[in-house]
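Take a careful look at the protein record below. Let me know whether the C-alpha cells fit the sequence:
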Amino acid sequence: MTEDHPEVMISAQSGKTSDTFDLTRVKEVVAEILLEFKADHKNLEMTVLKQPFEIVDNTILFILNGEIQKDVFLKIKPEFVGLLRQKLKNTQVRLDLELRENIADDTPKLYTSTDKLNFLKGKSGAFRDLQNRFGLETDF
C-alpha cells in the first residue's frame, strides 16, 4: 500500500500498480463482461459467468454445477482473466473453480407429468380442487 493512495498496492517484484478489489467491484466488472459476451452471442459463456462466486485473496472462485460448465469455464478462462485484470487494473487477479453438484437444490427431480402434478398438488390445494372439478388426468 502506498501512503498517497492506500487503495493501491505496488508489487515489489514488477513495480506495477494493482488496484485492490472487493466483491461489489468484481460484480460490476463481471456485469460489464456479460454485456460484451451478450453482444458477441456467447450464450454458454454467459451462463457460466452468471454462476455464484467468492473472493479469496486475489482469487475469484466460481462455483459451478457440473462438468459442462467446467469445460466452458476452462475454455473462456484465458480471455476472462485478461478482461478481469484489465478492468480491475490488477495484474494479480487469479481465477479458479469449484464444482458443487446441485447447489441449494432441495427440489426433487420431476420427470413425468404425473410427478409434476403430484408435486403441485402438494404445494397448493387449489391444484387438487381444479383436478377434481374438471376431471383432469395427466395420462391420456
Remarks:
- The longest strand covers residues 59-64.
